[in-house]
Task: inverse folding
């Protein structure tokens, strides 16, 4: 396994020389994927340890991960429903779904920034790629997200919200959400490791994204002239279509879905390529 | 006997910036002022050596002489600035024992985690668990959190797990510091068993008498260069007289 990794690093070195995707470079990406599969056990064990440590022995750990979105919901609901008088149908559910998706995106991109320095002691001593650290953090947050989604589904059932979305479409949109989040995490992680003040910048950007994305309001409130630009962000579309499918029984049309899928893949690919270019230098910055 | 490690003109140069820039702001300011000055520091300078299979190599030298850098290059964690280092076989890097241990997890949970770092699957560790715990002499404490373990117990646990991997080349940085009078000979005789199986063991240590007793050859580093590479007796005598 370790020998295999050495070969991989050598090909990566060659890769660093240019960003163009030639035939050999495509092979490198395949080799890289192969390497990650070989490390699947390590990623799983690290994620499992992180998950355990976060919720260790106490019920409060898991409880807080539900209380946080719940209080966010209460505050935003109070402001938007009672003060600004939003008349979006099923507004609490509309808001809750937005908050759950947002929390996954925000928490993951923030925690991935710390992930490399948190595992520095391992990365400095054993020949493993820093991407393992990012992927294991990602995996453990994905588990938390899955639990939250299940709870959301149960709540929909308890409150008898009419639900008849196409389960495959929902899973497809969630997959795109995972790709976008992972892509962005692969950008934030090396940037933070390299520049320690990137964390502050990312906090500001997250604040901005929170209000740009249609989390608290419906995208139909965005002026028509901005709409085209507004919908370029894949995350915006994922949130809109998830709600359409789950709460409003509308199925987005195929071209819209195709655009969302393509832009998500592009974002993911940018993240992967950026990370691969940075990763060798990262160890020396720890 | 075949050559398993062949280092040729191996050099590791660290560029130590006069002011280290770790933020976006400092980098931006630095670029504007065009002040990118570095202090060159050779951790290893033009090193040539080769090591056969079935040898125990002792690595000695003062602090900062390049022992750990050399082990890290052999382990593939660091990359040489120039020169080459050809390695035949699977290398197991145990640069510092228990590197992945987490104090809030139990001994057993830690073994799964550390095992994964060393490339062992959950199933493999489960099978070998009794053996690992027995060798480390901590069977009774397997469900105890690691923070209640003594340094010696933790070190023994890590060493014991390490023995379960099956590498061709073992790199070890200071193991004798953790063992007591019973465990140190036990681990050393295990290293001898490895040598007899044709594996190569490289141990960096400050325990000169143990190195003299167990190593086949000793490599003395001084300021990033090889001062001497030969029989333990000669090299250690030279080191002590200098």
Result:
């Amino acid at each position: 396994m370790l020998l295999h990794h050495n070969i991989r690093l050598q090909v990566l070195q060659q890769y660093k020389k240019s960003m163009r995707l030639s035939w050999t470079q495509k092979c490198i990406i395949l080799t890289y994927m192969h390497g990650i599969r070989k490390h699947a056990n390590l990623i799983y064990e690290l994620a499992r340890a992180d998950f355990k440590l976060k919720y260790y022995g106490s019920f409060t750990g898991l409880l807080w991960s539900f209380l946080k979105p719940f209080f966010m919901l209460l505050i935003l609901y109070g402001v938007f429903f009672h003060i600004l008088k939003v008349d979006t149908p099923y507004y609490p559910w509309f808001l809750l779904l937005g908050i759950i998706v947002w929390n996954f995106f925000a928490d993951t991109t923030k925690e991935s920034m710390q992930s490399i320095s948190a595992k520095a002691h391992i990365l400095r001593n054993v020949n493993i790629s820093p991407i393992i650290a990012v992927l294991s953090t990602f995996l453990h947050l994905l588990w938390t997200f899955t639990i939250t989604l299940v709870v959301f589904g149960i709540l929909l059932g308890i409150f008898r919200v009419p639900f008849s979305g196409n389960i495959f479409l929902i899973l497809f949109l969630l997959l795109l959400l995972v790709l976008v989040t992972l892509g962005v995490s692969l950008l934030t992680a090396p940037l933070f490791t390299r520049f320690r003040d990137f964390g502050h910048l990312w906090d500001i950007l997250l604040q901005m994204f929170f209000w740009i994305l249609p989390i608290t309001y419906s995208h139909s409130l965005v002026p028509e002239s901005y709409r085209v630009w507004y919908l370029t962000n894949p995350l915006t579309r994922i949130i809109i279509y998830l709600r359409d499918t789950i709460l409003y029984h509308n199925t987005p049309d195929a071209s819209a879905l195709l655009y969302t899928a393509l832009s998500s893949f592009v974002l993911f690919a940018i993240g992967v390529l950026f990370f691969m270019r940075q990763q060798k230098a990262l160890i020396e910055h720890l | 006997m075949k050559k398993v490690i062949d280092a040729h003109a191996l050099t590791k140069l660290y560029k130590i910036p006069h002011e280290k820039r770790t933020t976006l702001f400092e980098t931006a300011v630095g670029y504007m002022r065009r002040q990118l000055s570095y202090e060159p520091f050779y951790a290893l300078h033009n090193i040539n050596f080769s090591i056969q299979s079935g040898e125990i190599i002792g690595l000695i030298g003062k602090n900062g002489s390049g022992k750990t850098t050399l082990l890290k290059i052999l382990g593939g964690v660091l990359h040489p600035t120039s020169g080459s280092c050809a390695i035949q076989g699977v290398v197991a890097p145990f640069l510092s024992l228990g590197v992945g241990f987490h104090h809030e997890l139990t001994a057993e949970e830690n073994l799964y985690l550390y095992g994964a770092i060393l490339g062992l699957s959950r199933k493999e560790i489960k099978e070998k668990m009794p053996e690992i715990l027995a060798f480390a002499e901590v069977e009774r404490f397997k469900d105890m959190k690691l923070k209640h373990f003594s340094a010696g117990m933790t070190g023994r646990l890590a060493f014991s797990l390490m023995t379960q991997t099956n590498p061709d080349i073992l790199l070890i940085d200071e193991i004798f510091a953790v063992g007591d009078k019973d465990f140190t000979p036990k681990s050393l005789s295990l290293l001898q068993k490895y040598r007899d199986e044709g594996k190569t063991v490289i141990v960096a240590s400050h325990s000169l008498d143990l190195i003299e007793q167990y190593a086949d050859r000793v490599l003395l580093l001084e300021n990033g260069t090889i001062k001497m590479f030969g029989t333990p007796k000669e090299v250690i005598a030279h080191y002590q007289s200098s």
Chain B has a mean pLDDT of 83. Residues 52-241 of chain B form a domain with the Rossmann fold fold (CATH 3.40.50.300). Chain B touches chain A through 35 residues (CB under 8 Å). Chain B has one domain: 52-241.
